[in-house]
Amino acid sequence: MKKLALHWQILIGMALGVAWGMSSSSLGLNSFTTDWISPFGTIFINMLKLIAVPLVLVSLITGVSSLSDISRLSRIGTKTIGTYLATTVLAVVLGLILVNIFEPGKAFSPEKREDFKEQYASTASDKSSDAAALEQQGPLQPLVDIVPENLFLAMTSNGSMLQVIFFALLFGIALILIPPDKAQPVNDFFEGANMAILKIVDIIMMTAPYGVFALLAGLVVDFAGDDPASAWELLMVLGYYCIVVIIGLALMIFVVYPALVVTVGKTKYTHFLKGIFPAQMLAFSTSSSAATLPATMECAEKNLGINKEITSFVLPLGATVNMDGTSLYQSVAAVFIAQAYGIDLSLSAQLGIVMTATLASIGSAAVPGAGIVMLVIVLQQAGIPIEGIALILAPDRLLDMLRTTVNITGDATVAMMVARTEGQLHPPTEITVR
Questions:
Q1: DSSP H stretches of helix in 160-238
Q2: pLDDT averaged over the chain?
Q3: Residue 1 lies in a domain
Q4: What is the domain range of residue 31?
Q5: Residue 427 lies in a domain
Q6: pLDDT digits (tens, 9 = 90+) for 264-273
Q7: Cβ–Cβ < 8 Å for 365, 371
Q8: What is the pLDDT of residue 428?
């Protein structure tokens, strides 16, 4: 009997997790779910985070050193970063267009706004404090933060991924510049380490359906509490806002990315979607581009035929700096909050949102919930009350799952575009999804 494909196993795990969570709320099993099921979801996330830094470090060093000359690295890097910035700006502008057309913020009553402010006051305050610390930094602080003062300290946190990438690029370039006979043993070591890490990824992915089940069961229990009806009521109140965000994210996946894949990547979008689907499901369940990176790289190489030379450079960089879904969400959320407070934003204020959201996406950590902290900076720049963030905290996890899916799809799209222009795209005759 043929084994069920991995993406179907993940889908089944997601469905069973939601069903268990709702049943737990109805039957009073919340404590059991929190104590005995949810921890397995945390373990699964921890395993993915465990492998993220070693994967980025080793794969980038291997990828850069294999380019053999600096001019090629410069060409690929310019294409990658330029395309990432272009898609991010496009996502922000698309979000602004949609939120100005549908005006979801005007659907809130004053009473409901006060309820949200009171319920989420402490969380909103914490996010504001985090953003205030970032606001006090100088204009070049993001550039300073890229260069680590201690590599081993940088490797202790997935939030310092840019620093790890900086060192990996520097090390890879150094391997190109030293004599080949001296560089070869080092290259062989990292090539072997890369194979071992990818095998660890395979082992971790075998547990994905169970991890996804535990993650979603715990999420639903936290969201619904002892009254499942309250979860549905909350979703109905914020449904309009969610729909606008979802429309924008859907346009990215089903309009923007198909246009790029077909015209530049010269590949059928159905083939692309089928190949990246397992990574999309993992991104949806984990809400973390960094945690999904191993699966994204595996899908891009094995299912889409993108050369490892490209994936090992483009995808780790994209997981850190390319956040199309997060950028679109930030623009919609900012204007939504302004509308809820009766604030009319001028064209210049909305152009400011485009710039701030684009830059914020580059500095946003590829972990669950990081977009909320960066959103506070966007709100402050536009002069929108920070307290309004309380309005969108309730459905944020659901939207975080969706926008992370868009983020990794955008990464894979750019990888395919760069691979095609570099002659490094060789689609397999049959997609393998386990």
A1: 161-177, 180-205, 208-224, 228-237
A2: 80
A3: no
A4: 6-421
A5: no
A6: 999 999 999 9
A7: no
A8: 59
The pLDDT assigned to 326 comes to 86
Residues pairing with 306 in the sheet: 425
Domain count, the chain: 1
Region of 393 on the Ramachandran plot (φ > 0 left; ψ -120 to 50 alpha; else beta): alpha
Candidates 375, 381, 389, 291; CA nearest to 95 is 375
Q: Specify if 398 maps to a domain.
A: yes
Residue at 391 is within a domain: yes
Residues facing residue 425 across a β-bridge: 306
- What's the angle, vertex CA 368, arms to CA 362 and CA 371, rounded to 5? 40
Q: Which tens digits make up the pLDDT trace of 215-253? A: 888 877 876 666 666 556 545 657 888 899 999 999 999
pLDDT of residue 389: 74
| SS3 per residue for 86-115 | HHHHHHHHHHHHHHHHHCHHHHCCHHHHHH
Q: How far apart are CA 66 and CA 50, in angstroms?
A: 25
SS3 412: helix
> How many residues are there in the chain?
434
Report DSSP letters for 252-313, one per residue: IIIIIHHHHHHHTS-S-HHHHHHHHHHHHHHHHHH--HHHHHHHHHHIIIIIT-B-HHHHHH
The larger pLDDT score, comparing residue 5 to residue 201, is at 201
CB of 198 within 8 A of CB of 298? yes
Do residues 419 and 298 make contact, with C-beta atoms less than 8 angstroms apart? no
Q: What is the pTM of this model?
A: 0.68
153-174: string of b/e by CB count within 10 Å (b at 16+)?
ebbeebebbbbbbbbbbebbee
Q: Which of 287, 321, 280, 308 is nearest to 161 (CA)?
A: 321
**N-to-C CA span, the chain:** 14
Dihedral sign computed on CA atoms, order 5, 7, 10, 12: negative
Residue closest to 369 by CA, chosen among 337, 335, 392? 392
- Give the pair of three-digit tokens for residue 22: 């709702």
Give the CATH number of the domain where residue 300 resides: 1.10.3860.10
Residue type, 40: F
